[in-house]
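Possible race condition, two jobs.
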Amino acid sequence: MIVRQFIQWLRTASAGDRADATSALARAYLYSDLSPDDRAAAEGAMLMLLDDPSPLVRRALADVFAASQAAPPAVVYALAGDQPEIASTILERSPLLVDADLVDHVATGSPAIQAAIASRFGLPRAVAAAVAEVGTAHACLVLIENPDADVVSFSLDRIVERHGHLAAIREALADRADLPAATRQAMLAKLSATLADFVAAREWLEDDRARRIAKEACERATVALAAQVAGDEIRPLIRHLCASGQLTAGLVLRAVLCGNTRLFEEALAELSGLTLARVSAIVHDRGGGSFRALYHKAGLPPSLYPAFREVIEAMQASGFVGDVDGATRLKRRMIERVLTRCADAALGDIEPLMTLLRRFATEAAREEARLFCDEIAAESVAAPVQRLAAA
């Protein structure tokens, strides 16, 4: 009887009054001890209210039912398909929606809908993957920043691939402690490409030169990253570099000229198909007879072989670098030795190799100069403090 009177009253009430009454009816449905007949009548009335022309009424239903397990499913499903301002409340919180429902709304919904789903507590892996695959940049950012979302590395890679050119996405990803090394490297590559496009578009540098500088910066950062990652992450990083076409002879040469033998040996093992133990034994073999065969089996260009051979001999003579810091920067003396040996050797056309080595030598010299200046600056700051302490 009360529900019938309520329905009659709705015809003349204002939108605000209808919204207040709808909210009261929805709470009564959830929390009052209604008879089965009254409960059925109340649900029927709320189904009718889904057609109310005022969004205030439908929003009142969404606010009450959003987080309730006892809400009438038909009402919840209908509200999930309402306009974004109403549907977002349901899609963000309702426990009645299953993964398939959420994936469907991600695929067909507006940016606001995608962002609401991405912010759900305990977001399942399949739904997170859907957001990563088709979600807007904002939805992906919400997903990355959601600590309760189950986001696997494949989804993170897809976000980098689609939105890695955006600084906000890169910063949010960089803050994640669980970000794999391969994904971090993909971010580096995306950043270098974005910067190259930016510089070339403004004609600050020629396109080819801008891309070469960006590529070298990416390789430098990649070697530094490889020197710092855990042992079980280095091979996935190498495979990512292979798959993306970044594991070039120049990158491998840079790694060994930095003394990063771990990256060097893992790269040779991946390229040659030999075990890491076998590759390591060949690299450390002072006889050096097997290194040429390993080098060619890895598919590296013959023109760069003299440089690799000289570096291996130099490292065997002086010892292999073991510290992380030392494996991130080019070794100037080693590069100069390789340059001298290659220039003195009676070889064919080695000008491309010499050009690459000269660039490495210039980079190493500039890095040494920067470090030297930093040390002087640090000493000049520390000296007054020491004098004050002595006084």
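Job #2 (started ~2 s after job #1):
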Amino acid sequence: MSHPIRFFYRGQVHTVSDVPPTRTILQHVREDHRCTGTKEGCAEGDCGACTVVVAELKGDAVDMKPVNACIQFLPTLDGKALFTVEDLKQPDGSLHPVQQAMVDCHGSQCGFCTPGFIMSLWSLYLMQEGKTTPLDRKEIDDTLSGNLCRCTGYRPIIDAAHRMLELPRANFDHKTLAATLKDIRRTDMLTYAGEGRSFHVPLSLQQLIDLRAENPSATLLSGSTDVGLWVTKQMRELGDIIHINQVAELQCMVEKDGKLEIGAAVTLNDAYAALCRHYPQELSELWQRFASQPIRHAGTLVGNVANGSPIGDSAPWLIALGSDIVLCGRNGQRVMPLENFYLDYQKKDLRPDEFVESVRVPLPHPGLRFRTYKLSKRFDQDISSVCAAFALTLDGDVVQAARIAFGGMAATSRRAPKAEAALTGRTWDEAALADAVQALADDYAPLTDMRASGTYRSKAAQNLLRRFWLETRPDAPLPSCAVNAFADARP
């Protein structure tokens, strides 16, 4: 039996049936509702022209986040609310303060990207309700990190972000929206069928286990920030889909036995926020530079890990910390070190009936020296040329254990055993560093591609190890800010 997709949009609850499960939200609003303010620029979640805001219930509260409509499939809207630029029109027909601020500050030129900017700014505007402190530049930049503009140079848009809070306030009725979302919230699994393909949304771990055992060839979908591109860019047929993000057990983060366990449905933003409370210096910049806000609101940490991309930014530091991955199937759980999960390029130790349930991340312990570094052509929203993670356990000045992992240097994110061996048992000094740098050259044979040459990658990896030493050496370590430019070479 197929259920219709139900969601709130343009002031009413809509039901949708008989469309392909991989029809995107962008296609639906533009082609079915003729709401053409939302634009398609890249169809891969990079440019932000398609930015919309999706609202869902978190407990009894409404959580509203910007996402990329071009890579989100329509059935993922079930039980939620969708807001596009057309929804910002005020009851008297006037512009919303966000829109008026863009007009006042000349924040739009050709206008193609403008609706996406407005929706990102609107999400920021909603977050300022009840606050008295002004916005700072970092908060604005981070909000707009997923929106690209070729005309304005961004200054007038940033001016508009300040200006929108100076105008008379336009309040949003969260209470009424929450009541509507409660009315359409499902109490059992959604099974949607369209054009011969099914889309399942289990609500419990047991439902997911049973579904996966019955449909081992089905595509597992989490945040759709990668799988969405399989459809929009590679034109792949996904077959049946199992969407895991509504499974209650996978939405949890639990601290136990010196580890933080993060479920497969926890978003990147929520996961990194929790992790940065334990590793503020070590992970905060990587969190900020990981894709963009719309991607981080939709994608999940476990999805990034399970994808197994050699250029993913999460696997290197998780491996360096000695994290475990928890797999689940009809025969129960399997737990293994994350580094053992990756067998080869896009090959993982995952049985047909299994899925990734969570990752377990070790928390700081005495003697740990840990850093992460990302090199890319742009600061924001760019794929790494090299992503490095270093974790040493020191007893005084002596390295008791060394774990070094890189992304972008091999077919998978993996450790550097020769460099680690050169450090283990040694005093953490310049002589040990020199030996480890030399050994690192033998750990990898990086490829050359559009992001960087193999020669650049090798040299950059060695320089990042030197930077790590400068920041953590026992004798007068330098603060991170003092060496920020040390390895900032460009491919």
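The first helix runs from residue 25 to 32.
Logs attached separately.
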